[in-house]
Request: fold
Amino acid sequence: MARLAAELCAIAPDRWTAPFWAALIEHRLLIARCGVCGALRMPPGPFCGSCSAQPIAWDEVRGTGRVHTFTITRRAFHSALREHVPYVVAVIDLDDANGARLIGNVVGVDPERVAIGMEVRVDWDDVDETTTIARWVPAC
Ligand SMILES: [Zn+2]
Reply:
């Protein structure tokens, strides 16, 4: 899959998500957990769903996982995506993130070959100097 155009990446980090997006620019993947009770907080927000605390702690993960589920998009919902179809949008179970899942494209493989359980690793799409997107490629 070609790199996404910057106009398609309208990322708007806030104080709760900014560390995640900043780490992506450095090609690091962070997962949020509650800074008080340790519960998973992905996506990160102002209050912990378990204890209502606000502090967030960030853990760096390796960026490996497996396809939990996926869909193949065959019709571009925006004219700028015409050159990208068909493409895969998947939910990735991260290997070392205590159950955290991320959504992203699986690239570098024929969409028809993507399967639930496929091992993947993160791949960095440096859209521009302020935006990097995590996407996924087959691990082997
Ligand atoms: Zn908590």
Residues 13-61 form one domain. The mean pLDDT is 92. Residues 34, 36-37, 39, 48, 50-51, 53 surround zinc ion (CB under 6 Å). The radius of gyration is 16 Å.
